[in-house]
């Protein structure tokens, strides 16, 4: 029986080529802050990153009064309105309300986080695990684990990568007077929201 070959999409090829470029460039480049990485990465930079509602999978806007503690949902940012483009993994974020012990009980924006779902190791999609003894982000591919307070990898291969490739990109959030959650306009830069698939420097 013959096998069926599936031709990789152009974006798969370009991502693979980019990984090769990273490998060839070596760790030294990772420490070079003036390289405009955002131009090379498939960040959704062609869409103006504007302030946007945190829209949950059920179509409603997240609210501090109703979103459960120790719980996560997948959100999309920035939304293009095109259902195909909006399925792009580089637009997917884990929107997490922290557990009580990490501050999730507060009725304000500090109880929430939104991190890029693209694992900083080899771009599998990680997710939040709320079970007792976990309460962290875990990547199913090679076991990288992420601290939900700051998005920093603390176990697995992503934790061994040099900064900024050991901290997940983040969306900064705010609330309105009704408790509705909003995403502040993102800046795809390693010193601000970070670069999806590449990382972010932790700000002190
Ligand atoms: S892709 Fe996530 S640990 Fe390797």
UniProtKB/TrEMBL annotation:
Annotated Rieske domain ranges read: 93-159
Enumerate the UniProt keywords alphabetically.
Answer: 2Fe-2S, Disulfide bond, Iron, Iron-sulfur, Membrane, Metal-binding, Transmembrane, Transmembrane helix
Single annotated GO MF: metal ion binding
UniProt-listed NCBIfam families = TAT_signal_seq
Q: Does the keyword Membrane apply?
A: yes
Signal sequence span per UniProt?
A: none
| Transmembrane annotation, as ranges | 21-38
The species is Candidatus Nitrosotalea okcheonensis
What name appears for this protein in its UniProt entry? Tat pathway signal sequence domain protein
User: Which PROSITE patterns did the record assign?
Assistant: RIESKE, TAT
């Amino acid at each position: 029986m013959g096998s069926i070959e599936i031709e990789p999409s152009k974006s798969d090829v370009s991502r693979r080529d980019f990984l090769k470029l990273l490998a060839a460039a070596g760790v030294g480049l990772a420490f070079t802050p003036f390289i405009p990485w955002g131009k090379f990465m498939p960040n959704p930079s062609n869409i103006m990153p504007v302030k946007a509602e945190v829209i949950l999978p059920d179509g409603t806007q997240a609210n501090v009064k109703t979103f459960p503690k120790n719980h996560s949902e997948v959100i999309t940012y920035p939304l293009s309105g095109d259902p195909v483009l909006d399925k792009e993994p580089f637009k997917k974020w884990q929107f997490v309300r922290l557990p009580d012990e990490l501050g999730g009980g507060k009725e304000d924006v500090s109880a929430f986080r939104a991190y890029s779902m693209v694992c900083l190791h080899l771009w599998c999609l990680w997710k939040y695990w709320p079970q007792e003894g976990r309460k962290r982000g875990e990547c199913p591919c090679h076991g990288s684990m992420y601290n939900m307070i700051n998005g920093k990898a603390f176990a697995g291969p992503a934790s061994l990568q040099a900064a900024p490739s050991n901290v997940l990109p983040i969306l900064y959030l705010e609330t309105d007077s009704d408790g509705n959650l909003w995403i502040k306009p993102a800046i795809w830069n390693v010193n601000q929201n970070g670069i999806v698939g590449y990382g972010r420097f932790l700000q002190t």
